[in-house]
Write a structure and sequence with these properties.
heterodimer, A: about 260 residues, mainly alpha, MetI-like fold, 10 helices, B: alpha/beta, five-stranded mixed sheet, three-stranded antiparallel sheet, about 15% strand, globular
């Protein structure tokens, strides 16, 4: 069994690598063949622009600034989601109210809220963080609540019969049971926070004194620096992949997979 | 293997849809924008001036949101003729896009206004004061850099204060004291701001930044269009000249068609057309000086001393 599994994993890894290499090769040669390097830079041009801008230009500063905003937003969002979800679990009334709030706010794109937020707190880091919090809070709550509601009643009752106190019940039965849902909520939140940040900065300009990656892409667009634009996109992709592969997948392996809840 | 083949076919089909752009010889796509400076284009459209000089022309008018979008549409071959500020055009030229100036469009008083009484010069701008310009690399942004080089000794000194806002948003934000401290803008918004209470000018573009009169907007055409149909290209040039002459010498005669596109009544429109410094002209001025400055400040990296590299013969 083990051998087959390892074989499968190898095959899957190989498929992914082959696809990536094919993609990069196509990216390198198609713009040259069609003579459209000025509209789509080749892969090597984009990577070179990324590397040069990262160390010599402002790109690094923009990346750091973006990450600061995103992590602040995610921390606030997670804390709020935790508190609100806990309140929902404790009070049926609050849960009903929350249901209404979620169905109002969840479909509302953060970017549509930006003009309102700008009027309230002005244009700057604060308004971007509010937009990030908005775009991750509701998916986190929806997923966490769905997770808690999907806990088999028998397990809860078993826990109670074993004499578990409420805190112990939450920690050892409810959270592990709901964790796959919470984790997928986190994945959605991560992707959404990037979108919120980049689009908010592209619509309304720099968010602070430096500005993040959205502002960087916006600036390069107006200077017709196509390679620079792709350098910004590559940064977004690389950071997204690092967090997804390293942070979120590790979390998944250490929890859900270890507990034998999913594959 | 079959699946892979199918994928290749689909990819190929997608690519061909993206790349096909064979165009009819008699067709020309002109990008339109609204604002006092673009008035000759409105005249050209409404009075069918291109068709007057080339009767079988199929003229399409594209409506695009910003100068940046016009430039991108021209770079990708969807638009043949478009107007923009001189620096945005120079950015395209410096990045080796093959379009050049057909004719200038206008000279206008540009400038930066503030709603902070304590700001008397650029030295009074603090790091937390935001300055709105239409976009990075716009003529307003470059003029601000010129002014800050003159007054502060560094062209990029205020780049961190600059944010992007469309003209009307910037004007209302400045007048209503929302968020921004200063706005570098063009007519008619500059006129509205100068007439509003509590707003004063800090930078007069001609006096404090450029040092002499300069062209604000130019109309450019792509090399592909000129090669495709030189006669039609010529017709566009003649039509532009006629429209510019009308706007310069007889704006009253087109008030009924131009004023509504700017949401102005007739009197205000005429007042703006006759404002000191507002001129509709065909001859560009100051392009090399802009290019030289933009190279020195590091915004672009390509220089020429010959204006004919920038203008179609």
């Amino acid at each position: 069994m083990a051998e087959k599994e390892i074989n499968d994993k190898r095959k899957s890894l190989a498929t992914r690598l082959i696809f990536l290499v094919a993609l990069f090769v196509a990216w390198e040669f198609l713009p040259q063949w069609t003579g459209s390097e000025k509209i789509i830079p080749t892969f090597s041009m984009a990577i070179e622009a990324f590397w040069v801008n990262l160390w010599k230009g402002d790109l690094f500063k923009h990346i750091v600034y973006s990450l600061q905003l995103i992590f602040t937003g995610i921390l606030i969002g997670m804390l709020l989601a935790f508190i609100l979800t806990a309140l929902c679990m404790l009070s049926k009334r609050f849960n009903d109210v929350m249901d209404v709030i979620v169905s109002i706010m969840h479909p509302l794109p953060g970017i549509a809220l930006l003009p309102v937020v700008m009027l309230l707190v002005g244009l700057g880091a604060k308004s971007i963080i509010i937009i990030i919090v908005h775009s991750i809070l509701w998916p986190l709550i929806v997923n966490a609540l769905a997770g808690f509601r999907a806990i088999p009643r028998i397990q809860l009752e078993l826990g109670r019969n074993l004499g578990m106190r409420p805190f112990r019940l939450i920690w050892s039965v409810m959270i592990p049971n709901a964790f796959p849902y919470i984790l997928s909520g986190l994945k959605i939140a991560w992707a959404r926070s990037w979108r919120a940040l980049v689009s908010a900065e592209m619509v309304f300009g720099a968010s602070g004194l430096i500005g993040g990656l959205g502002w960087y892409i916006y600036k390069t667009r107006f200077f017709m620096d196509v390679s620079g634009m792709f350098a910004g996109l590559i940064s977004v992709i690389i950071i997204g992949m690092i967090v997804d592969e390293l942070v979120l997948k590790t979390l998944e392996r250490k929890t859900v997979q270890k507990w034998g809840m999913s594959l | 293997m079959k699946k892979l083949l199918l994928l290749c076919v689909i990819a190929g089909m997608l690519l061909t849809t993206f790349s096909c752009s064979k165009r009819d010889r008699d067709s020309v796509v002109v990008a339109q924008q609204f604002g006092l400076g673009y008035a000759p284009l409105v005249v050209m459209q409404e009075q069918k001036l291109i068709e007057k000089y080339y009767p079988s022309a199929k003229v399409e008018w594209a409506q695009l949101g910003s100068g940046g979008a016009i430039r991108e549409a021209m770079a990708s071959g969807q638009v043949d003729v478009g107007s923009m500020g001189v620096p945005p055009y120079l950015i395209a030229w410096a990045n080796d896009y093959d379009f050049r100036v057909i004719s200038a469009l206008c000279e206008m008083p540009l400038g930066m206004q503030t709603n902070r009484p304590e700001v008397r010069s650029l030295k009074d701008i603090t790091p937390d004061m935001k300055i709105a310009t239409p976009s990075p690399g716009s003529i307003q942004h470059i003029l601000l850099s010129m002014a800050s080089e003159k007054e502060l000794g560094d062209p990029t000194a205020l780049d961190r204060n600059v944010i992007a806002m469309a003209h009307p948003d910037g004007a209302s934000a400045l007048i209503n004291h929302i968020e921004i401290a200063a706005h570098f803008t063009a007519p008619p918004y500059i006129f509205v701001e100068l007439e509003a209470e509590g707003i004063h000018q800090v930078v007069d573009a001609e006096k404090d930044a450029f040092g002499e009169p300069f062209t604000f907007l130019v109309t450019t055409g792509t090399a592909a269009f000129r090669e495709r149909n030189p006669e039609l290209f010529d017709a566009v040039r003649k039509a532009l000249k006629e429209a510019i002459d009308i706007m310069e010498n007889n704006p009253e005669s087109v008030a009924d068609i131009v004023a509504p596109t700017m949401n102005l009544d007739k009197e205000t429109y005429l007042k703006y057309c006759n404002w000191p410094g507002v001129h509709f002209v065909t001859n560009p001025r100051g392009m090399l000086k802009f290019l030289d400055f933009m190279n020195k400040a590091g915004y672009v990296n390509k220089m020429t001393q010959n204006e004919h590299d920038l203008i179609w013969e």
